[in-house]
Amino acid sequence: MPRRDKTERLLNLVFAMMSTQRAISRSDIRDSVAGYEDANSPEAFERMFERDKDELRSMGLPIETVTDNMGEVLGYRISTTEYEFVDLELSPDDLIVLGVAAQVWDQAVLSAPAQTALRKIEAKYGKSVVAPPAELSGLVRLQAHDVSLPILLRAAREKRVVKFNYRSRDGVQSTRSIEPWAVICREGHWYCVGFDLIRNEQRTFKLPRIQGSVKLTAEMHTTPRPENPSIQIPQPDNQITATITVAPNSGAMLRRSASKSEQTNDGDRLTVHGSLQDLTQWTLLALADVLRIESPALRTAVLAASQQILDEHLAVIKVGLARG
User: Fewest Cβ atoms closer than 10 Å to its Cβ: which of 2, 200, 267, 316?
Assistant: First the structure.
């Protein structure tokens, strides 16, 4: 008999645990769930089942371990009331936000739960509807130095104090003890906003400047969180204002950063403001529809980035030709 696909075995296990109100024992799982006949010994079955159970839980499935009064394990089940998908009514904008969020978490430790939730939403609304526009792909991202993000989110949610070593913009290092209020992303960078217990005032911390690990303490917040805390983020040194003419109905990210938009015979003339890096990236995303760049600094950056992309493609082509 051919070995069953792992995905098929996991689905069979889920169905078995959802179809019982009491619990399904390990012996019943081995005897009745298709896929476990591949285990050629009790030890092999135990290892296979434990791996499968851990993987399903990592995907967000609420597997309950049922025990008797003495603490002996009777079996396992999945409550349909806990697992069933709540019938949400999501707007197109809601779906785009969820798609972008799933892309962000796909690079982090919450990848499995995020992707599981996204699959459920896709089942109702369709994969193409949930997928964010190309202009938004990669706009909000996680990098290696953002490793402290999950623990800061937890601290803000549970209202617990965290401690960490921090290097300021001037390079000064110090130990901080803060009550996190929120974690936000601005221009591709993550920041934690909270109350600094040492300096006794609200502060904003850039995640890449956190040195080492963040310690989650048992201390609870004592300072009330403002209704709308001000976000004090220093502006980068390379902020510029540029004028770009784009074709109608194009350049979504450029339009989002535009403070002024004029319709002309040539196209839409946008006055945009932001970091040179972001404006360059957004211009490249809409490059086929960019008609004119009136900022010398932005034009130079876009030309240099375009040349770099071209050079990299040519290098790959040359390697391919050399290999025959």
Answer: 2
